[in-house]
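Task: encode each sequence below as structure tokens.

Item 1
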Amino acid sequence: MSELSLVTPPARTDTPPQRRDRTNLLRTVLKRLVTALFVLLCTATVSFFLVRLSGDPVKILLPPDATAQQEHVLRASLGLDRPLLTQYLDYLWGLLRLDFGDSLVYGQPVREILADRLPATLELAAAALAVTLVIAIPAGIFAAMRRGRGSDNTVMTGVLLGQSTPPFWVGILLILVFAVWLHALPASGYGNLANLVLPAITLAVYSVAVVARLLRSSLIDVLSSDHIRSARAKGFGPLKVVLTHGLRNASLPVVTVVGLEVGNLLGGAILTERVFSWPGVGQLTIEAISNRDFPLVQATVLFFAATFVVVNLLVDLSYSFLDPRVRTSR
């Protein structure tokens, strides 16, 4: 036998593509989770110290004619007489146990108060997101297909107005028209679909403008690519080309913006809930800031920060399913 036949071929060290993809995805998720925890820790720290710069809550909780002894007793009962570092470490220890403390004003656990107000905010944000997608996606597709024409200019003018108009002003205008003049919809309240219409539209106006504008721009870039020209050469109609071949390729930046807008919808609900007296977390945040309710302010700020972090993580993970090139590059 020759020497070549006695040589054992080297073992294959190539990692299967599917296993490599799972490893890369797991590594990406772990990195994002570590970053998310660091962001939440920074948010909790900043909110803890900044909220204490707003003043002493004891001055608000007690009547104006309260004595210094009464203030001292109340401050001690709330734990505000302890060193600031001790209060901070106790706060972090509570966060590890998902204990946000008790509200200074309501006297209830902050976790229970948030649980009561959260459904209203989620309902409003979900309705606003639905309005955004229902209006923005058709508007963006229509404008991209009619690029440079009068209808495209009309849509882009509406988008510009939506981006430049303050949401609280939109809410006041909608109340004036539909509640005061037409008596068609209630100006405030909570509990049925009619109460949800005006706040959802108000909250969605800016998001509609952002998503429609980005989708139009992304589609215009995709429609000029070679594979789109090949699809047109095969005799596919314009709408089928856009929906079948163009929309998915143009969806990656849109998904990013939609994910960010989910966080913006929850954060932007603060002013919208105030205008329409909507009993959600946004309204609760304003009340907590006005009352210097330290634990409640800290919890609501952390809630909004956690929402942005979770949404961004989900958006990052969705890239792997929308574009295989992103999955293989990680």
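Item 2
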Amino acid sequence: MNGINYTHLHYEQQYLRRSDGSKLRICVYRPKTKFAYETASADSSSVPVPGILWIHGGGFALESPELEVFYFQKIVDATNAVLVAPDYRKSTEAPYPAALEDCYWTLLWLKDHAKQLGVRSDQLVVVGASAGGNLTAAVSLLARDRKDVNIAFQVPICPMLDDRETPSSYANDAPVWNTASNRLCWNMYLGNRKVPCNVPAYAAPARAQDLSGLPPTLSYVGDIEPFYDETVTYMNRLAAAGVETRFRVFPGAFHVFDALVPHAGISEDATNFLLDGFLYGIRHYSAVQH
């Protein structure tokens, strides 16, 4: 393990060895405060904090956890949570299900190391934006079906959920993400599963037939980006299945607008919605491990 300090965070790396001998790098972020180190000490007098699995975006093919520190700082500062972010395998290395397997394995690692990390084992949260939002939803589906870890709530932000084109993802030329980039990245991620009938819900969560039993869900999306329709549809289906949801649409907003122009009024509104939703979830949601 080695440590690097950010302005408001303490950052460490862990390496987990996969079954094939390769290593999965995991980034661990904590508040740089006395409170954070006390909670991580496994001292019985410590007060455990939420544990967040953060799954970064990048169309399954790009980026690394460190590039989303913008989000990390705001959430960790607001919640004192311990945030764990896997540097999962990209589609350029291996297509589905490699990324999902890495993310799910990291969630199990977080659950198993909750005491050492100073984390509440009954308050594990899964969060991600864009492709990370896909993997957030997929991890939540997998956890529900496998029943070996319970998630308190999930936060798929502007998620990339559907490999099938929707009205908003067809002929979309919005900034940052558009129809061409969407098609390319789905093709890379699905690999040899390009035939529509061969795409499982764990790869494209919009295809899931049954959304009951999933954890409470917080999400938001801009209405000019490709993922607008699939996000609205997914959130409506979750609510219809009895899942508690908190959701907003931001008019005129493109993909990951809040990260790219953080000081714009609409971005600050989205950030406040996210943080308020996080704090609400921490106050109201928990899921005991069995």
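Check on item 2: The longest strand covers residues 119-129. The two ends are 30 Å apart (CA to CA).
End of task.
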